[in-house]
Amino acid sequence: MADNSTVLDGALDTINATLNSTAPSSSGSAWETLRDLDFLLLEAKLVFSALGIIYVGSHAALRRPPSAAPAPSRKKLGKKGEHDDDDEEEEEEDEEPFAHQGLELSDAIMFPLMAGIILMGLYYLIQWLNDPSIISKILRWYMSTMSILSMLTLYSHGIDLVMSFVFPRYWRGRDGSLRKVDQKERVVRPCDDVGNSVEGEPASRSPLPSFVSVLAPSERTRRAAWDLRGVFTQEWLFRLYVHGMGEEKAKIRFSHMIALVASLGTAVVYSSTTSPFLSNVLGYGLCYGSFLMLSPTDLLIATLVLSGLFVYDIVMVFYTPYMVTVATTLDVPIKLTFQAAARRSILGLGDIVLPGILMAWALRLDLWLHYRRKIKYEATELKIIEKDAVSGAIVTRSETKHKEVKARYINAQGAWADRFWVRGCMLFGAKQLPAEVAASRFPKTYFHATVVGYSLGMAATLAMLLVFKRGQPALLYLVPGVLGSLYLTALARGEMKLVWGYTEDGSIDTKDVVVDLDSEGNAVKRLGKLKDGVVDTTKDEQKDKPEDKDKDGEKKSKDASKEVKRPDSKDGEGKKRKRGHKVFYISLETPPVAED
């Protein structure tokens, strides 16, 4: 049997190609290859690994959509004091709808341009040095270092997912009744299908769900299980302050500490051994981190960026030697590599990240549409200030209008384990679920459409590889598959205007908006923002921005005044001295605990 090698590779994170190095010459070789079980398993592993990291990363990148109201801030625990300011800051952070780095229109030009410069630079550097091992070693250390943060996030989320299956928040007992964990009281209380505690029912003491509770038969093992659950569910507040640079805060868990050690070990071991398995792990981490950090912002920018890379990929694969040379010469973690017998299959990270960020955006689009359907409009008596069209004078009138009321956002992440224990592995099939569990169940029409489009694009790539026996640019098939499925779904559902208008730049994240409704109860016109029962239509957003800046300035001045009003100290001569300011500090704080 002839040696057959399939390569889908990427130079850095935007270069993709497919290469068949030793294709059989017989006309029936393609059919014989398809009949080869090793080939089918290898390519199936390739496709499902790409779809798997995209699926997981897209769900991890979910955030509060602009069509949902911010979730209520955590109640201030303990007495008012030093934590008051912290709570205010945390509340503002919780209201941030997106934590992504949005792409811009200029990226449609910059992405192909920078990718081409890097690709050609690597190609001529390989030709000049005539020793690609030096470049590979340098790039391995660089990529290993840069991927530590992404791997830390992937590892920590993976640990949290595993522990959520071991210690879920909800599960069903053997009698089919739903149970809810109370970590503070260390009991498991019976509850109804929506999560409300049922009085009079006996509570259990084991934090382990269903049949897994047999692993903690004694009081001692149950105590140890509760302690372990508390360690993995506890959050700490990490603070880093540098004078002149500001303060950074982050919530960390025990899983982050384990993941930090694991990610550092992975990077060091890979750099020393060049293991293909660890190279794949680094690749998964880079893809996962990209989904969390990058956003195409809106459909127009996504279309232009992917279209630019679509043309770039075709030119570099079909008309230049740069792509194939760099892809097959350097051994760096910019690809996923799978090998079986004499065959090797390689998928460039660009083939995953570039379509994947649009697929993650499509999932957030589905969540936005889900909460948009929940928006209600309540009649409100208000005063409207507007400019008379004839005289130009400012007039005030009273009128009943409708105010937009958004549903509160409930975190849609991390409910897989609860869904599994509540109904996934059982046959009870309750129609209602607790809000924390049901939040992750929303229509994912556009996301599923892009998954189908991506799968068809991968199938077309492999088919063209077998037919033409030469390198194929994967984006040639993936970009039309993903973009085409998204556009066709929007057109078929009559939602093209909504999909085109959805953006993650923050412009549609509004509150207290007054609207006009049509006969069917749909908003047709936004009149303005409601403030103290008054809607002033004479002000535009640009005039409001200086006021926001002034408010920010007032807040900073208040904070500064608090800092100045600290008790002054006195020296030996009785003269007052101003207290010094902080220069640098690192702290790890436990959250405040409510007093009984």
From TrEMBL:
Keywords: Endoplasmic reticulum, Hydrolase, Membrane, Protease, Transmembrane, Transmembrane helix
PANTHER family to which the protein is assigned, alphabetical: MINOR HISTOCOMPATIBILITY ANTIGEN H13, SIGNAL PEPTIDE PEPTIDASE
Protein location: Endoplasmic reticulum membrane
Membrane-traversing stretches: 108-126, 146-167, 254-271, 299-322, 342-363, 446-468, 474-492
Entry-linked SMART domains: PSN
Protein name, entry field: Intramembrane protease-like protein
Bias (Basic and acidic residues): 536-574
GO cellular component: cytoplasmic side of endoplasmic reticulum membrane; lumenal side of endoplasmic reticulum membrane
Comp. bias regions, Acidic residues: 84-96
InterPro entries, sorted: Peptidase_A22B_SPP (IPR007369), Preselin/SPP (IPR006639)
Protein family membership: Belongs to the peptidase A22B family.
GO biological process terms, semicolon-separated: membrane protein proteolysis; signal peptide processing
Residue ranges of the region described as Disordered: 63-99, 536-596
Lineage: superkingdom: Eukaryota
Keyword Lipid biosynthesis applies: no
Membrane topology: Multi-pass membrane protein
Gene Ontology terms for molecular function: aspartic endopeptidase activity, intramembrane cleaving
Positions with biased composition (Low complexity): 63-72
